[in-house]
Amino acid sequence: MKGLAQNDDRFQGREGFGQWEHALQAHCGAFQCEPPPGREIAGFCGQIISPAFDSTRVGARIISNSPHIHRSHHDIRQDDNDCFFLVHQASGSALIEHGEQRNLLHPGDLVLLDATRPCDIRFQGMAGQLSLILPRNTVQRLASGRRLLLNRTLRADSAPGRIAGALVSELFESSSDNSEETEAMMDALLRLIRPLVSEDMRQPSSCAPRTQAQLLNKVRQAINDSLANPELSPLSLAQAMGCSLRTLHRLFAHEGITLGRYIMERRLERCAETLSRHTDKQKISSIAFDCGFSDLSHFSRAFKARYGQSPKDYRTASGN
């Protein structure tokens, strides 16, 4: 199912529930959904949003106040989804029963579900999940021939869980048309979720620690030197460093941050440094452009999310 259009429509009420359930099935396979009980169905609200990157069926962002989503043996026989769902709890919480285990997911937690086994997902109020479909052979390679473990949780408060969740979010939100970059991010994500499928907690590395540290320092310096360039991207960095995108994404995943997020943080820090100095005569838009931002509204939102103040208020508080 290639090229599913991203859908930002909100489904509401009784009719909207049926449309939402159909959209979920189109993106993720045979699942049955329970509407809010009785008259509460009038208050149903949900969204199904496909990832920004184009691929074969890859999952969806699922948002709703449907109390129960489940996949039974009958549903499993209805489709041929011999795959796994990597579920990232984006908001709210959900109780998941899969096999003989039950897990309560909180925001940021991840779990891997086998599509060939029944599962129950019970949302607690309005909740959102990112569900990424992974082929079975991809997951089996992660287990390295060991027995696959089911329904384990990678918690948001762990380093692998934090960066894996950030990578899933970037995969869903990135509008990059570069398949190589998408594959590199996926490769880094798969290495991080290895603990979900196998007891083997080792994280193999493609280069020696000293070589990694040297490359990391070079990449950081290249980023600092190129912040003003709005075309600065993981791909351009890989080309400049003479290494693969996979290597760069693994390198920053090991540091507990995605490469894209690191670039954004450095740009925001550079803007904050400039605003806190003698910049009263320089327009804020000029400062943003000098730091590589080409969209002023995006810059303002990102700056406020990072510093808790608008750029204008931040400069005023700094005495300029």
Explain how this protein is built:
The protein has 320 residues and is α+β, with helices and mostly antiparallel strands. It folds into 2 domains: 11-196, Jelly Rolls; 205-320, Homeodomain-like (Arc Repressor Mutant, subunit A). Helix content is 43%, strand content 19%. The protein has 12 helices and 12 strands. The protein has a 7-stranded antiparallel β-sheet with strand order 1-3-4-11-6-9-12, sandwiched between helices. A 5-stranded antiparallel β-sheet has the order 2-5-10-7-8. A hairpin with a 2-residue loop joins strand 7 and strand 8. The termini are far apart. It holds the Pfam family AraC_binding_2. This is Transcriptional regulator FeaR. GO terms for molecular function: DNA-binding transcription factor activity; sequence-specific DNA binding. It comes from Pseudomonas vanderleydeniana.
Per-chain topology:
Layout: E1 11-12, H1 13-28, E2 32-34, E3 45-49, E4 59-64, E5 68-71, H2 73-78, E6 83-91, E7 94-98, E8 101-105, E9 110-114, E10 119-123, E11 127-135, H3 136-143, E12 153-154, H4 159-173, H5 179-192, H6 209-225, H7 234-241, H8 245-254, H9 259-275, H10 284-290, H11 296-307, H12 311-317
Antiparallel strand pairs: 1-3, 2-5, 3-4, 4-11, 5-10, 6-9, 6-11, 7-8, 7-10, 9-12
GO molecular function: DNA-binding transcription factor activity; sequence-specific DNA binding
Keywords: DNA-binding, Transcription, Transcription regulation
Pfam families: AraC_binding_2, HTH_18
